[in-house]
Predict the structure.
Amino acid sequence: MRVVSVVGARPQFVKLAPVAHAMAAAGVEHVIIHTGQHYDPMLSDVFFTDLGIPAPDVHLGVGSGGHGAQTGAMLAALDEALPPLSADWVLVYGDTNSTLAAALAAVKLHIPVAHLEAGLRSFNRAMPEEINRVLTDHAADLLLTPTAVGAEHLAAEGLAGSTVVVGDVMTDVLLQVRDRVSGSPSPVMEELSLAEGSYSLATIHRAENTDDAGRLEAVLDSLARVDHPVVILAHPRLVAKCAEHGVALESRGSLLIHPPLAYPDLIASALHARGVITDSGGLQKEAFLLRVPCTTVRPQTEWVETVELGWNRLVEPGEALVEAASRPRPTEPREADAHPYGDGHAAERVVAELTAHLPG
Ligand code: UD1
């Protein structure tokens, strides 16, 4: 079996890591295509190095651009890159423009497509990610969903026949990296002289929070008003949008600005934090798995289990954010509810399902 993984943005490299290891262990021929959506070393190369992912076999070098230009450039490049690889499966990950482009390119070339992290929904069609994931699910032949809730969403859209629940591959990596870094101090604690459990770790990069100047200002102001230090890891989109809108991205009040972190450093920094404040999907779940309370600056989440179990709160910028960020720790979930994202072996199941569903 030959599987071609197409990745391009930071969270996809994290998901690729356990899948690449499971493919290697099972003796599967695995080809990696990097679209080039993310190209800064701190958003791309460090993930390959730190997580032991083989270097991409093909790099499309597409780079940044508007949705149409970026997705279109990837489509055109994949039209050329995919046919010579004679893939049994094209495996696409998550919900970025790279995901949609790869699914669309492959399905039109009649190459079977599997979507990893299928079935997640925010039901907010203003989010580019929601459009990407819905269209990818409907183009794909095999839907590998992380949760029972994901399977329900797919069934409601008439896609039950191609759905398999495999668990969450990000949980696989998180559990391994947590065990690797649990004894080491967090780099942000050392650099900013912060005590254990005294700070919140923040990331803000979603279009909904960064594209409008007023909203962006309100989010940063709220972070600055939290009653304890808040370290924001500044994603390039946040930096670019602050510059575009003339919003100052500087340490003020409780807010401390820090460059993005490599994955093991991010996990160590979250592990020793008193809270996480974010609009990222992955970090909400990572906070839950590390049992760090999370405050999510969005009206909806795809990871509903984190909210239902009391570890995540959805807020608007302003008083609600400030108050949620200093709320007390919730109670531990009951053992029966404690593992909604699987047992840390999802990637092995992904390989098994690709093998079992190999088109004739
Ligand atoms: C993308 C995904 C988002 C995901 C995020 C993870 C889409 C629609 N969005 O958002 O779902 O949560 O990745 O990080 O695919 N930039 C750089 N260097 C880079 C990459 C980007 O400076 O290496 C800057 C550029 O100014 C660029 C902006 O960030 O225009 C946005 O990058 P883009 O790839 O369009 O989307 P993200 O915001 O990173």
